[in-house]
Amino acid sequence: SPLLYSRGANGTGFVFTNANGLNFTQMNHTLPNITIFATGGTIAGSDSSSTATTGYTSGAVGVRALIDAVPSMLDIANVAGVQTANVGSEDITSDILISLSKQINKLVCDDSTMAGAVVTHGTDTLEETAFFLDATVNCGKPVIIVGAMRPSTAISADGPFNLLESVTVAASTKAKNRGAMIVMNDRIASAYYTTKTNANTMDTFKAMEMGFLGEMISNTPFFFYPPVQPTGKKDFDISNVKEIPRVDILFSYEDMHNDTLYNAVESGAKGIVIAGAGAGGVTTSFNYAMEDVINRLGIPIIQSMRTVNGEVPLSDVESNSATHIASGYLNPQKSRILLGLLLAKSSNITEIASTFALNTNA
Ligand SMILES: NC(=O)C[C@H](N)C(=O)O
Description:
By secondary structure, the protein is α/β, with parallel strands linked by helices.
């Protein structure tokens, strides 16, 4: 069961909580209550050098240290911490995603005293977890996913301010009914569309065509638009889901070999996403191999794109939408999460195709 901590706005120390909910008896009752779910990553990273932004240990410090590093968050909200995992985000698994989503649904959605959730996470796969939570936590309370590009021991570590801003957005009534959001580098971004665009720098999370939802100025959120959800978004109830079927991503390139597809299927993939060249492109020969796998084995294949921007329209994946499925505006890693969630419910290719079609201009 998760480790739970909380403490009062007046700094009166930790209040024990039980696994069914949080005891906020020593809290400042004029403030909203927020739970932070820590999963590891650079935001919890540590290194002996204060200038190292590579080669450090991810997930070295726990949720209590993260909260302790930002005392001013207790002027914004009563805060509880749950240690869901403590790993580099490359080691986040679909089992962790299922348990994180269930924890948020139980401890935040089902608890009327809770205003919102913050998830601390490594940045490398943050967009995948953000997409998963956007799809599976749907109670209208803000869910904010946050990371850092500099470890906690670096000069000007970005984690503490990012965490303060995330708690602030999660506690804001203006943040309700907008789906999950990524808050980093003074920007509020859509979990659905935002991707990591730079491997190293702090200004990395962007949805270049769709833009940001808002900004943080002096730790105050400003939303550019009223609450809105992405056009193609589908909500999932995963309360009965125990496992997400395996979905592999295959990268398209000149001379791509068909056996990459057959190997994936033989190894147990129940769905495939192609990071296609341009608008979903693969070699002519690979196109025949896809046709074979779809028709003979009934395995859905989503054609996405290896470019950072753009759309794979249905008209670009040939044939009809029930056999070749276009990812629309979803990149391969987000398409993989969506296909996994759909396969956890049903392997009906027509249903899968119609969900992806919501993301295309068809
Ligand atoms: N900036 C980071 O968080 C990168 C780290 N490797 C992670 O994703 O866990």
